[in-house]
Write a structure and sequence with these properties.
This is HTH-type transcriptional repressor KstR2. This protein is mainly alpha-helical. It has 9 helices and no strands. It folds into 2 domains: 44 residues, Arc Repressor Mutant, subunit A (Orthogonal Bundle); 133 residues, Orthogonal Bundle (Tetracycline Repressor, domain 2). Helix 1 packs across helix 2 and helix 3 runs parallel beside helix 6. The radius of gyration is 20 Å and the shape is elongated.
């Protein structure tokens, strides 16, 4: 199969990943064919298989990389109070995801299209991230800073609330990202504290 003029591995591989991310977010994984992906990238359909064995592997790679990037970037200093750590978590989560709307969308909407093995791997990474928040909530409850009946439910509720910002926030809108983060911190704080 002939290589498209100007096609190089260090250029083409990132273009394939970026195009897949964009197309999966816009049209859904099931609706995007390898041929459509090749057209978007500007290579012949058969050339895609030099970079990925199949569409499933590409989706898994995108989701796995997103979670690994999230885990690598999430830093929480255990010497700080649980309240300060929770405030930092809220700020980090919203800012990290605001810069990655397509990654967030496919990370939630396309999980169902992963094979059971790939789903289990991505789900394990998601649990690691959730565990970081749950540790903060447990520490805060133990210190008497938080009043939480079930830290697992609280963890899932807080993450869902914070991730929901991506469904409506647009830069240049009525509120700045800093203003949104301040309001979300206030809502999260009130949801986990007594009184």
């Amino acid at each position: 199969m002939a290589r498209t003029t100007g096609s190089h591995s260090d250029i083409t591989r990132p273009k394939i990943r970026a195009a897949a991310l964009r197309l999966f977010a816009r049209h859904g994984f099931a609706a995007v064919s390898m041929r459509a992906l090749a057209t978007e990238v500007g290579v012949q359909a058969g050339a895609l298989y030099n970079y990925t064995p199949d569409k499933q592997t590409l989706l898994f790679s995108l989701l796995q990389d997103h979670m690994n990037d999230l885990l690598s970037a999430c830093d929480n200093d255990p010497s700080q109070s649980a309240v300060d750590r929770l405030r930092q978590f809220v700020d980090f989560h919203i800012r990290f995801h605001a810069d990655r709307p397509d990654e967030v969308f496919i990370s939630y909407m396309e999980l169902r299209n992963l094979t059971p093995e790939n789903f289990a791997e991505v789900e394990a990474l998601r649990r690691q991230y959730e565990d970081r928040l749950e540790t903060i909530l447990r520490d805060g409850a133990a210190a008497g800073d938080f009043a939480i009946a079930d830290t697992k439910i609280a963890t899932l509720a807080v993450i869902a609330m914070l991730t929901g910002v991506n469904t409506w926030f647009r830069a240049g809108g009525r509120l700045s990202l800093d203003e949104v983060i301040a309001q979300y911190w206030d809502m999260v704080r009130k949801s986990v504290t007594a009184g």
